[in-house]
Amino acid sequence: MARKDESCEEDGCLCASGDLLFLACAGGSNVGQISNQAAVELAKEGKGRLFCLAGIGAHIDSMILPAKERKLVAIDGCPVQCTKKILDHAGLPVALSVVITDLDIEKTPKLEVDAADCGRVVDKIKECLRA
Ligand code: SF4
Questions:
Q1: Pocket of ligand 1 (CB under 6 A)
Q2: Which domains does the chain have, with CATH numbers?
Q3: Which InterPro entries match (predicted)?
């Protein structure tokens, strides 16, 4: 998997796949909450579907099996990359991995989602999907 820049990692063009699942860490920090909100906004725009990372983490077969048939976009708040690690543990390859702090958005314990920061994450993911 080629690393495109510091904020996204992908394997080939995904823009036309129409087959994307967005999985967000939804962690207890601003960037964790931004990850979830960005995934929600991308799903609402029809770029793909929001998928339950918790179900993957719980090793629910009925959730892992369909995920194997789709292209997975991991959205992590910080370099700990909980989403990507959960997918790795489940044996699910990631088509695109985005780390929000790589976009120079500082991690804080505050849970408010800054709309401008979230917009930057959404735009970056769209840019990565088009590349
Ligand atoms: S990736 Fe970072 S922000 Fe997200 S759940 Fe893990 S530690 Fe929290």
A1: 25, 27, 29, 31-32, 76-78, 80-82
A2: 2-130 (3.40.50)
A3: DGC
* pLDDT, tens only, 95-128: 999 999 999 999 999 999 999 999 999 999 999 9
Which two structure tokens, joined as six digits, stand for 16?
């036309």
- Where are the alpha helices (H) located in the chain, listed in sequence order? 30-44, 53-57, 61-68, 82-89, 115-130
Handedness of CA 7, 12, 15, 18 (dihedral sign): negative
Q: How far is the CA of 2 from the centre of ligand 1 (A)?
A: 23
> What is the pTM (predicted TM-score) of this model?
0.90
User: How many CB atoms sit inside 10 A of residue 10's CB?
Assistant: 21
Q: Residue 25, class by beta-carbon neighbours within 10 Å (0-12 exposed, 13-18 middle, 19+ buried)?
A: buried
